[in-house]
Amino acid sequence: MSAELRELYQEVILDHSKRPRNFRDNPAATGRAEGYNPLCGDRATVYVELEGDLVKDVSFKGAGCSISTASASMMTEALKGKTRAEAESLFDRFHRLITSDPSRAAENSAPELGKLAAFSGVCEFPVRVKCASLPWHTLRSALEGGDARVSTEETEASRGDAEAKAGTGRP
Length: 171
Fold this sequence. Notes:
Elements: H1 3-18, E1 31-36, E2 43-51, E3 54-63, H2 66-79, H3 84-99, H4 105-108, H5 126-143, E4 146-151, H6 152-166
Parallel strand pairs: 1-4
Antiparallel strand pairs: 1-2, 2-3
Helix pairs in contact: 1-2, 2-5, 3-5
């Protein structure tokens, strides 16, 4: 990645962390979930308002590092107006981007990620992956409806168990 592109990505992340978009609760939400990263203390509550299968509105509240806050802010912008299936697909592409081998990050930075590609450098810092993924795992839980709680330790352990059962776990 070029120095100019890396600098632009840093500016986008800083802008969203300092001035998060959709930072508010939503009393009309059809799904709400609370997320917590016990390793660094990040907390996020994600509110999703579905209209049928369409994400009518998505917002968040919480306190966290710049990566976590920017990820939540950019996630909310990217998901409004998407279907539940499109939201799941975007979650999968974003998760691949931030968890892939750093040498392959550019391959996973597909154009459909748009500004979310700014997180391509996160994979170089494994501890920060959980910061970036916390809002997304919380969103996934909120899409299921109800009032759920998510922990980065549980989501990563669950994913690892599922991959091991499927024979796809990485060493």
